[in-house]
Amino acid sequence: MKKRLYIELENCIGCRSCLAACTQCGGHEQRNRNYVYDVNPHVNRQTMPLMCLHCENPACARSCPAQAIQIHESGAVLSALVEKCIGCQNCTIACPYGIPKFDEEQNLMYKCDLCIDRTKDGIPPMCASVCPSNTLQWLTEGEIEKKQEQHNLDNGKWVTSMPYLEGATNVKVNLPGILQGTEKLF
User: Fold this and answer.
1) Under 8 Å between Cβ of 75 and 170
2) CA 172 to CA 5: how far, in whole Å?
3) Which of 95, 114, 116, 159 is least buried, going by the fewest C-beta atoms within 10 A?
4) β-strand 35-38 against 47-50: which pairing, if any?
């Protein structure tokens, strides 16, 4: 059963457990591949994780002249292949979310690969497996639909991706908003 990373931004408490776990993932060579963004640090402590959304038609892959960025059959957009990446950084410029990072020493782009060594076997990515506030969850399509129904989010305001930026993504995002009972008002 196919699962997706589901991000419930309202739950983020800024603990940065996801970042710590990311560096410990087997194939990540102790490099963090995600971010936690302080939304307005001078006013409050609101934070939100920024992860690769694994676009179905990713700009990073489209912009790569060496075809170094591959898309796994599960939909995960992988880091640049070492043997193909020419270090042009087109991918880092093309990504509308600013996710790919560039390692100058290795002359290589790297980014979240959705812990493909784990997720291809149905094991949650490291970030989701350690998140104490359920901001990052590893859910089936049915479980995501239940969440949508639970909050009566079929109101045209619930956003599963940024269609105006990059089209469909393989990561579902529940944007923050104001809940009144089970109805999202924003």
Assistant:
1) yes
2) 6
3) 159
4) antiparallel
Question: pLDDT (tens digit, 9 = 90+) per residue, 96-127?
Answer: 888 999 999 989 999 999 999 899 998 999 99
* Token pair listed for 122: 């149905």
> Which H, E and C letters describe the chain, residue by residue?
CCEEEEEEHHHCCCCCHHHHHHHHCHHHCCCCCCEEEECCCCCCCCEEEECCCCECCCHHHHCCCCCCEEECCCCCEEEECCCCCCCCCHHHHHCCCCCCEEECCCCEEECCCCCHHHHCCCCCCHHHHHCCCCCEEEEEHHHHHHHHHHCCCCCCCCCCCCCCCCCCECEEEECCCCEECCEECC
What is d(CA 158, CA 155) in angstroms, rounded to the nearest whole number?
A: 7
Amino acid code (one letter) for 106: Q
- For the whole model, what pTM was predicted? 0.80
**Residue of 67, 91, 76, 66 whose CA lies nearest to 27:** 76
Burial class (CB in 10 A: 0-12, 13-18, 19+), 153: buried
State the average pLDDT for the chain.
83
Tokens 């993504």 correspond to 169
Half-sphere exposure of 57 (CA within 13 A, CB side): 6
